[in-house]
Amino acid sequence: MIELLNVSKTYNSGKSNQFTALRDVSLTIGPGKVTVLQGPSGSGKTTLLTLIGCMARPTSGRIMLRNMGTASFPGFEAGEGVEITSLPERFLTGIRRSAFGFIFQHFNLVRGITVLENVMLPAYPTGEPHDAVRKRALQLLEMFDISRHAPARVDLLSGGEIQRVAIARALINNPSVIIADEPTAHLDTKLSREFMAIVGSFKKEGKAILIASHDPLVYDADLADSVVLMRDGQIISSGSAQ
Amino acid sequence: MRNSTIFFAFVAVGVILFATLMLHSQRALLQSEKMLVANGNLVGSLRLTDLCLFTEARYTRHPAVADVHSAFQDHPMALDHFPSGSLVTPPRFRNEGP
Amino acid sequence: MNRYLERHRNIADFALSSLMRRKGKNISLLLVYTLVVFIIASVLFFIHALKHEAALILKDAPDMVVQRLVAGRQDLIPAGYGDKIASIRGVSEVTPRLWGYYFDAAVGANYTMMTAELQGPEPEKIIIGNGVARVRRLAAGDIMTFRAYDGKTSLLQVQSVLPYESEIAASDLVIMHEADFRLLFNFPAKEATDLAVKVRNPSEISTVAAKIVKQLPDARPILKSEILRTYDSIFDWRGGMIIVILAMALLSFIIFAWDKATGLSAEERKEIGILKSIGWETADVLLLKFWEGTAISLSAFLSGVILAYGHVFFFSASLFEPALKGWAVLYPEFRLTPAVDAYQLAVLFFLTVLPYTFTTIIPSWRAATVDPDAAMRS
User: Under CATH, to which class is A29-55+96-240 assigned?
Assistant: First the structure.
């Protein structure tokens, strides 16, 4: 479970281009639930995702992680919450690597290397044995029906195939939270529906899913457990869908 | 086959080869004692003063006993004997005669 | 420990995949780099081995050689000088040396003609160096013709050929009997080319030399230490060709390093951002750049040095032949003893590997410390 308490984020503070992306946001995200952040661009969705995903620290407020396998980190006990706002960089990265999987809006795959290597990349710095990672990567590619593309360069794939590679990559470290930023922005209806079906399978596995989207196919879907409306860096309303 | 396996194998082979060559050098040095002694004896019995490196001209063939004037007396256009002239400079002596 | 090693291997994997993306560029870079290391290492090996050999062989050279100068040129030295020198206290032996040059028009080669009092050939016979035998395709028993200074032809039979190992000291020698020598060159009796002097006490050599100059002002003594010093300063970096080679090599290293040091392209920066966003730390990215740099420089160093060793010690530095041979027709086959200077090799290693690896890491530092969320926002 992820808990945000009065979180604010200001960029370039003190300079002339100071900009407050998030203002006093409080939110709870539970396991096995799909949360959709809805709102126009500039509403702070992406910033909220980066803060939750341990990619940046909030300017003020607290973010707590509970029951997310943080017990595997030295100094923390099972069941206790971890406040990531005060963690040193090293631990933050470790948590991010093992607890979160990211699917970016532009997919952000590395060009020029194979699909398989792209999927395995997030696991490289962990020092996990190569064969185990490779096996898992191939299984993931199999799951998304693109294992035949394993030795191909990503530059040669179609949009839908690239997205599935990006999803596979997000899963390589077996994360408990999936974060997706505008995942259907570059997909047609059919592929968007396929994406939501995959999200459904994540939900069944008990993963928490957080999606930022202004696509009604996403925020109006049955799968969405709660939709958080955002505007100008603040949460206007948050409630279960329907 | 992983990239790094190939690379580290290549480096390992390289390091082993390098070490082998260094050992070869040590061994060859020991084995060449006989030859060096033989050459030394030749130098001693023939009373040689120079190695036979550049046979083009007098001051390049016997640089140890050449004088500083030799360079310009051999041929008007041979201002210097290329390339030996750029590799061997006339030596400086303490007891230069008149 | 395993995880630690596995992390290095994984990142090295990706570093190599990265390099393979621009296969052509990186392979040509590697080849050129290897070539530069090969040339420098060959030069270092060759010079060091040659100097090492010179020092060992020439320590049996005469203690002192005395010449006579007339108007700045070396002239023949009369036997009377030898008697005077022999009477100086400390001198144990004075031997006149007869030697000179002969130009063989048939092949265009210069030979060094000389006599030997110990182990010399029989009258009308010659002992020739291996290089002479090679250039004129002679073997023991063959006849060699010389044109004497009085116009007559001298026919001398080859008694034996000096061994192959002696090439470095005796490649171009033609050793003959004294009578034949004087006949061939119309060499005046009672005169010699110069005198070889043996001194009883080696520490007295300079004193004896000073006495010789005092007694015989037109004599010019050359000490053994000076002979050895000549060969110590051969191929000195202050000489023309060596400094050109070293300058070129230095320039190459600078160019390689400069190419890396002038910062990252936008694509490389973006890629580092992606790596940071999928969970790579700054240290991981820097390790990646380290392996990229080291892969090329370490490979170049190992290949270049190994090839250079083979070139100099197994192939007699044959690639240097056109540079060293010059106008000479007779060129000795160097079979140098592999004397290697570990210090020079260490310096070469640090020059080859460290700057290149450094200039691959440093420019990436800035990009590597970028916040991971930058990739989200781009």
Answer: alpha beta
